C-alpha cells in the first residue's frame, strides 16, 4: 500500500506542478503574446543547460544512494552531506561559467539573469533525499503551497506585454523558494557527522556516469526549443513549449511511478531479491500501459481544437504539433518503467546511458533538416523519433532478462480500446463547437468507451484493481 500511496502523492504533485502553470497559460499567452511567451521559452531552454551541468546527475544518483543506506542513519547522514556539498560546488562552477557566457552573449541578457535563479535553486535542491527515503508527503505538501503562491503572484503582478521579466522572476523564484522550504526537515532526518571524515569526491565519478544520460535527455528535451528559436524565431520556440507543456502534464500521470518505484526497486535489489525486482517491472509496465494508451489517444483526439481554444488564436499551430507529440506519452511511459524503474536501480547504467544517448543522437541528426523542411512539425517529429529510439533500444537490451509475453500481455487489448476511443472522440470533436462543456463531454465519452471495451476484452489488470479495492475496504 505504501507504493500506491507514494504514487498518488507523487502523481498528484507532478500533475499539480504542471497544471498550475497551465491555469495561468491562457492568461499569460494573451497578456504577454507569442513574443513574450517565446522569449521565456527560448531563454529558459538556454539556462537549462547550465542547470544540467551544475546538477551532474545528482538527482537520480542521490535518490538511489539514499535508498541503499536509508536503514543506517549514520551512513544516511554522511552520504547526504557528501552529495549535498558536492552538488553545491558543481552548481557554483556552473554559475561562474554562466556569467562568463553572458560576457559573449548579449541578446536577452536581463531575462537570462532572471532565469539564472534556476541555477541557484538547483544548488539547494535536496528533494532527492526524501525521495530516496520514500517520504513524498513532505515534498508534495510544501511545494504545493509554493506553486499555488506562484499562481497568485502571476495574476497579481503580470498585467501587460512588458511584464515578461516579472513572469520569469515569479516562475524561477517559486522553484528556489520551494527547494528552500525542505531544509528545515533535515533536523529530524539526519544526524551530526564528522566533517573531517566526509569523502565528497568519491561520489563524483558515479554521479558523472549518471550525468551522461542526463545530458542526452536534456538534449532532446530542450534542443528543439533552442533550435526553433535559432533557425526560425523565438515565437516558434514558444509554440513548441506550449505543446510540450500539455503533453508533459498528461505524461506526469505515468512517469510519477518512476520516482516512486526507483528507491523501492533499488532497496529490493540491494537485498538480492531479484525475483521481486522483475515482479515490480512487470506490474509497473502493465499499469503504465493501462494509463498511457488512453492518455495518448485521448489527447491526440482533442488537440487540434483544444490548443487555439486554450491558448488563443495566435497559437493555432500548437494544435497539430500537440496531436503528433502525444505519441511520446506512450513511448516515454514505457522507457520510464524500463529505464528508471529497472535499469538504473539494478545498476545497468551503461544500457540506460546508451539508450538516452542514442535518443539524443537521433534528435540532433533529425532536428536541423526536419526543422528547415517542416518547421514546428519537424521539431515535434524529431522528438517522437528520439523517444522511439530510446524505448526500442531499452526493450532490446532487456530481451534476455524478462519475458516480453508478461510485459505486453495486455497491451494489444489496451491499444484496441484506445483506437476505438480515438475514432469516436475525434469524430465528435470535429463536428462539435468547442468549449469547456465539450471537453468534459468528450473526456467522459472517451473514458466510458475505453472502460467498456476493456470490460469486454477482460485484461488481467481488472482483477488486480478489484483486489486493491477489496484490500482497501478490509483495511478500513
From TrEMBL:
Main localization (coarse): membrane
Keyword Transmembrane: yes
GO cellular component, one term: plasma membrane
Subcellular location: Cell membrane
Keyword field contains Transmembrane helix: yes
Transmembrane segments: 7-26, 46-63, 84-105, 111-133, 140-158, 164-186, 207-226, 246-266, 287-311, 323-344, 356-373, 379-396, 408-428, 434-457
Keywords: Cell membrane, Membrane, Transmembrane, Transmembrane helix
Classification via PANTHER family: O-ANTIGEN TRANSPORTER-RELATED, PST FAMILY PREDICTED COLANIC ACID TRANSPORTER
Name of this protein: Oligosaccharide translocase
Amino acid at each position: 500500500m505504501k507504493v500506491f500511496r507514494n504514487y498518488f502523492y507523487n502523481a498528484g504533485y507532478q500533475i499539480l506542478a504542471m497544471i498550475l502553470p497551465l491555469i495561468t497559460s491562457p492568461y499569460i499567452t494573451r497578456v504577454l503574446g507569442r513574443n513574450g511567451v517565446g522569449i521565456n521559452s527560448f531563454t529558459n531552454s538556454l539556462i537549462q543547460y547550465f542547470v544540467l551541468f551544475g546538477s551532474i546527475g545528482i538527482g537520480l544518483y542521490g535518490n538511489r544512494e539514499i535508498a541503499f543506506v536509508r536503514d543506517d542513519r549514520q551512513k544516511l547522514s554522511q552520504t547526504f552531506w557528501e552529495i549535498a556539498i558536492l552538488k553545491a560546488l558543481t552548481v557554483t562552477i556552473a554559475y561562474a561559467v554562466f556569467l562568463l557566457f553572458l560576457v559573449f552573449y548579449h541578446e536577452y541578457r536581463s531575462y537570462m539573469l532572471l532565469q539564472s535563479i534556476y541555477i541557484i535553486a538547483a544548488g539547494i535542491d535536496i528533494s532527492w533525499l526524501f525521495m530516496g527515503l520514500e517520504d513524498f508527503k513532505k515534498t508534495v505538501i510544501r511545494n504545493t503551497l509554493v506553486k499555488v503562491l506562484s499562481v497568485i503572484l502571476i495574476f497579481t503582478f503580470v498585467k501587460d506585454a512588458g511584464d515578461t521579466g516579472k513572469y520569469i522572476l515569479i516562475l524561477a523564484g517559486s522553484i528556489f523558494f520551494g527547494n528552500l522550504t525542505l531544509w528545515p526537515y533535515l533536523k529530524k532526518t539526519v544526524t551530526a557527522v564528522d566533517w573531517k571524515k566526509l569523502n565528497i569526491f568519491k561520489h563524483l565519478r558515479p554521479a558523472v556516469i549518471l550525468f551522461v544520460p542526463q545530458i542526452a535527455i536534456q538534449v532532446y528535451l530542450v534542443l528543439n526549443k533552442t533550435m526553433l528559436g535559432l533557425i526560425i524565431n523565438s515565437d516558434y520556440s514558444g509554440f513548441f513549449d506550449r505543446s510540450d507543456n500539455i503533453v508533459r502534464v498528461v505524461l506526469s500521470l505515468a512517469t510519477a511511478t518512476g520516482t516512486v518505484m526507483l528507491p523501492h526497486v533499488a532497496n529490493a535489489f540491494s537485498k538480492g531479491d531479484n525475483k521481486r525486482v522483475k515482479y515490480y517491472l512487470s506490474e509497473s509496465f502493465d499499469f503504465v500501459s493501462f494509463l498511457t494508451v488512453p492518455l495518448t489517444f485521448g489527447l491526440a483526439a482533442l488537440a487540434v481544437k483544444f490548443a487555439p481554444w486554450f491558448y488563443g488564436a495566435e497559437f493555432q499551430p500548437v494544435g497539430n504539433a500537440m496531436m503528433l507529440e502525444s505519441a511520446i506519452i506512450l513511448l516515454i511511459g514505457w522507457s520510464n518503467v524500463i529505464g528508471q524503474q529497472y535499469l538504473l536501480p539494478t545498476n545497468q547504467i551503461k544500457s540506460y546511458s546508451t539508450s538516452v544517448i542514442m535518443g539524443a543522437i537521433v534528435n540532433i541528426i533529425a532536428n536541423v533538416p526536419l526543422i528547415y523542411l517542416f518547421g514546428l512539425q519537424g521539431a515535434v517529429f524529431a522528438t517522437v523519433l528520439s523517444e522511439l529510439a530510446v524505448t526500442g533500444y531499452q526493450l532490446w537490451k532487456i530481451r534476455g532478462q524478462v519475458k516480453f509475453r508478461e510485459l505486453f500481455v495486455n497491451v494489444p487489448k489496451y491499444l484496441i480500446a484506445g483506437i476505438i476511443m480515438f475514432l469516436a472522440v475525434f469524430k465528435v470533436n470535429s463536428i462539435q463547437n468547442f468549449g469547456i462543456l465539450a471537453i468534459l463531454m468528450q473526456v467522459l465519452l472517451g473514458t466510458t468507451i475505453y472502460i467498456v471495451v476493456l470490460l469486454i476484452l477482460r485484461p488481467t489488470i481488472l482483477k488486480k484493481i478489484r483486489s486493491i479495492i477489496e484490500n482497501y475496504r478490509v483495511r478500513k
